[in-house]
Amino acid sequence: MQIDFRGKTAVVTGGAMGIGLATARAFATSGASVWIFDIEKEQAEQAAAAIGARSCAVDVTNSDSIEAAFDQAGTPDIVIANAGIALFGGFSNHTNEQWDRTLAINLSGMFRTVKAAAERMKPRRSGAIVLTASTNSYDGAANQAAYNASKAGILGLLHSAANELGPYQIRVNAVCPGLIRTRLTTELYDDNQSLKEYFRQIPLGRGGEPDEVANAILFLASGLANYVTGAALLIDGGQMAAKFGTWTDEKAEFIDGTWRLK
Ligand code: NAD
């Protein structure tokens, strides 16, 4: 099913690649006028040219940069706060700078984006905002303290924003992807043995693709979700529903990155 976004303007932060680019492309394909806000200026320009969008060099850690970009793009109907990084390390070797940078982009960057978007949407009494959180918003692993804290924090931001912006008919929701094949996860995807063990825990037996997250974001941003706000939608192949893992070597085999029943 194709959702119709003709006449709508959608802004996607971190839209130059990965989940953001898939989302920007899906909005463009569905008729929206799309703006990519990304720190990678050239990559954003190329991505925008390829999908018929426009781009703006934006650093989400900098309020002036965000405000200037929104001034250029005009009042958006839809804002996808998606820009994020993953810097991993244990307590003994994770530097304070890595912690600060992760929080500055992943959490404070989303706050700044929501704040700028909300101020422009409020007078219209309408709008849809979607935040890219994570399964890491709920659970965690060693060596990911900063990333986990940032992604858990996004749910706090989500709940407050939904409360505050609901009276203005601005809906705020989040997607919580599991492992998705992007630049962020290249290292893991290059290691077949680690993937096999990771996907053993996932009922659908595989990782996700950026398009699969984009589809959920489009749904939450669309009129089909008119009565949905404050929600966090897992897009994780069932990972967070699996307590004891799903796949065993007796019953299944791991072929081309996917567990399949024998
Ligand atoms: P990615 O590295 O492919 O894309 C991230 C984008 O954010 C890039 O285009 C990058 O240039 C941009 N960006 C980084 N810092 C920025 C800044 N300061 N200002 C503006 N833009 C900036 O990674 P991705 O996997 O597509 O990640 C997108 C979002 O999805 C992130 O918030 C990430 O935490 C989240 N996420 C990813 C996964 C996964 O498995 N890939 C899982 C859960 C959540």
Q: What compounds are bound to the protein?
A: nicotinamide-adenine-dinucleotide
* Low-confidence blocks of residues: none
Order of helices and strands: EHEHEHEHEHEHHHEEE
Distance between the termini: 33 Å
Spatial sequence of strands, sheet with the most strands: 3-2-1-4-5-6-7
Question: Which range best describes the helical content: under 10%, 10-25%, 25-40%, 40-55%, 55-70% or over 70%?
Answer: 40-55%
Helices and strands: which structural class? alpha/beta
Number of helices: 8
**Shape from CA axes?**
globular
Q: How many E strands?
A: 9
Question: Could you explain how this protein is built, in words?
Answer:
This protein has 8 helices and 9 strands. With 262 residues, it is α/β, with parallel strands linked by helices. The structure holds nicotinamide-adenine-dinucleotide. Nicotinamide-adenine-dinucleotide binds at residues 13-14, 16-20, 38-40, 58-61, 82-85, 105, 109, 132, 134, 177, 179-180, 182-185. Nicotinamide-adenine-dinucleotide (NAD) binds at residues 13-14, 16-20, 38-40, 58-61, 82-85, 105, 109, 132, 134, 177, 179-180, 182-185.
Topology (elements, then pairings):
Blueprint (H helix, E strand, L loop, with lengths): L8 E5 L4 H12 L3 E6 L2 H11 L2 E4 L5 H11 L4 E4 L14 H26 L5 E6 L12 H21 L4 E8 L8 H4 L2 H8 L10 H12 L10 E4 L16 E4 L2 E4 L1
Parallel strand pairs: 1-2, 1-4, 2-3, 4-5, 5-6, 6-7
Antiparallel strand pairs: 8-9
Nicotinamide-adenine-dinucleotide binds next to helix 1 and helix 4.
